[in-house]
Amino acid sequence: MSQRRYEMTDFEWSIIQPLLPNKPRGVPRADDRKVLNGIYWRLRTGSPWADIPERYGPSTTCYNRFVRWQKLGVWDRIFEAITAAYDGDLQMIDSSSIRVHQHGANAKKGPQAAAGDQPDARCMGRSRGGLTTKIHALVDAEGRPVALKLTPGQAHDGKSAADMLDGLGEDQILLADRAYDSNALRQTMDKRGAWACIKPMPGRKDPPAFSPFLYRYRNHVERFFNRLKHYRAIATRFEKLADNYLALVKLAAIRIWLRSYESVS
Fold first, then answer.
1. More reliable by pLDDT, 218 or 24
2. If 125 and its partner were Cys, which of 81, 106, 115, 153 is the partner (CB 3.0–4.6 Å)?
3. Domain ranges for the chain
4. Which fold has domain 87-241?
């Protein structure tokens, strides 16, 4: 049978299959490849979970498997395993705001968030585009994601990046736009032996060293977001829970990684 649109190739499945949980004892679970193809179909089309075609099994099985494995950290572990081979010499960071669909906006805030004790754990916030979620991505020199996180849409890029840069060290270079221009971030990179090639804000009295030549490569992170938004369930956020939405982002990122391998094989 010919490869159906949006389904995993044999190569993609050969990489993902060994990283999935071992089958439990007792009643055999539904075929993993078929269920994962159903999850990817929904991720690519942005359709409701209930509209997953019958050829992938019951839609409830696809949804329940996705949520259960998200809670068990399966998608996180697959993402970490596949991204472990990233090219670390040159990395780029940026963010992209995603509009929250009205279906996703119906989720209730947690009691602490509602009381103002902590930020809204749904990672939704008001910005110029209305209710939005911001995806932050650190990518390597090939435009493949190394780290991903979510924040509410109004979050400041530079402040949100602090916990994403722990992997940068000796002789590595970070590229970023003006939103990340701060002395604190540059000093942190200096202490680690890395260099922050960040476009300085206009009117800076003490403009730091900056390479326009290297900065041209920052478009790789923008290309990553363009590829990511081919997945309609990412381009518009339908998920009510931030953990589920981030899991979908990582599933799309996993496929971007695997297809980069296939393109050079």
1. 218
2. 153
3. 10-72, 87-241
4. Nucleotidyltransferase; domain 5 (3.30.420)
Residues in the chain: 265
pLDDT attached to residue 134: 94
How far is 100 from 257, CA to CA, in rounded Å? 26
Give 145-174 pLDDT, tens digit per residue: 999 999 998 888 888 888 899 889 899 999
| First-residue to last-residue Cα distance in the chain | 23
Buried b (16+ CB within 10 A) or exposed e, 145-174: bbbbbbbbbebebbebbeebbeebeeebbb
What tokens appear for 242 in the block? 């931030």
d(CA 90, CA 79): 20
Mean per-residue pLDDT for 245-255?
97
Q: Which pLDDT score, from 0 to 100, does residue 109 have?
A: 56
CB atoms within 10 A of CB 184: 10
- pTM of the predicted structure, to 2 decimals: 0.90
